[in-house]
Design a protein that fits this description.
The structure is a single chain. By secondary structure, this protein is an alpha+beta fold. It folds into 2 domains: 1-54, no CATH class; 70-189, no CATH class. It contains 5 helices and 10 strands, in the order βββαααββαββββαβ. It has helices spanning 53-62, 73-80, 88-97, 127-137, 174-183, and strands spanning 3-5, 27-31, 46-49, 101-103, 115-117, 142-147, 151-155, 160-164, 168-173, 188-189. The strands form 2 sheets. Strands 4-5-6-7-8-9-10 form a 7-stranded antiparallel beta sheet, with helices on both faces. A hairpin with a 3-residue loop joins β6 (142-147) and β7. The longest helix is centred in the last third of the chain and has 11 residues, at 127-137. The radius of gyration is 17 Å and the shape is globular. It holds the Pfam family SUKH-3. This is SUKH-3 immunity protein of toxin-antitoxin system.
């Protein structure tokens, strides 16, 4: 079950009158009871994603649901052969979001990407790129898919999502990064 939970200070006056369903402080809340067989669910655990309602709706349309778990073994093995090691943050992210495809961008936002594919296999020939930028930036990047079919996407050990091309740009950590991908936000250059 998904519950929306608004922030208490969110509608203070006419100047703040925004559509509450698009407000970034709404939370999509799912308990582990919703996780239908999740290996990590204990029955008392609560997973909270902080996305706008519009982002949660777009992810649902793409096939995401609370407690979604996909097998990541093939991606781990595929990249390990080339020296790119899947870290726990990549494992958690891909278990929940791996294989999803959605259109990024909302009509009122200058969009970075129209289509986002969260499928590491689309980066099969990019292992050297991820190793190079991991060494260069002192982080551990693992491929998670592509934006626009062109731009490789990766995640670091802290859950920060990046565009990893001939330059590196940051979308944000965890929920912020997912929201930015769904919204089609332009990432911030890192290197």
């Amino acid at each position: 079950m998904i519950r929306l939970q608004g922030h208490n200070n969110f509608m203070r006056g006419a100047a703040d009158a925004v559509n509450p369903l698009n407000h970034p402080l709404f939370k999509v809340r799912a308990t582990s009871d919703d996780m239908l067989g999740s290996a990590t669910g204990t029955g008392s655990e609560v997973v909270v994603h902080e996305w706008s309602y519009a982002a949660a709706k777009a992810l649902r349309k793409a096939g995401w649901r609370p407690g979604r778990q996909v097998d990541t073994t093939r991606w781990r093995e595929q990249f390990a052969a080339g020296g790119v090691v899947m870290h726990p943050a990549a494992e958690r992210f891909l278990a929940e979001f791996g294989g999803l495809r959605f259109r990024g961008g909302w009509w009122w936002v200058l969009s970075a990407a129209e289509v986002v594919d969260l499928d590491p296999e689309l980066c099969a020939d990019e292992g050297d790129r991820f190793l190079h930028w991991s060494r260069e930036l002192g982080i551990s990047l693992f491929p998670v898919g592509r934006a626009e079919g062109i731009y490789p996407l990766g995640i670091d050990q802290d859950g920060v999502i990046y565009l990893v091309a001939t330059w590196v740009a940051r979308f944000g950590a965890l929920d912020e990064g997912v929201e930015a991908l769904v919204r089609g936000d332009l990432p911030k250059n890192v290197a």
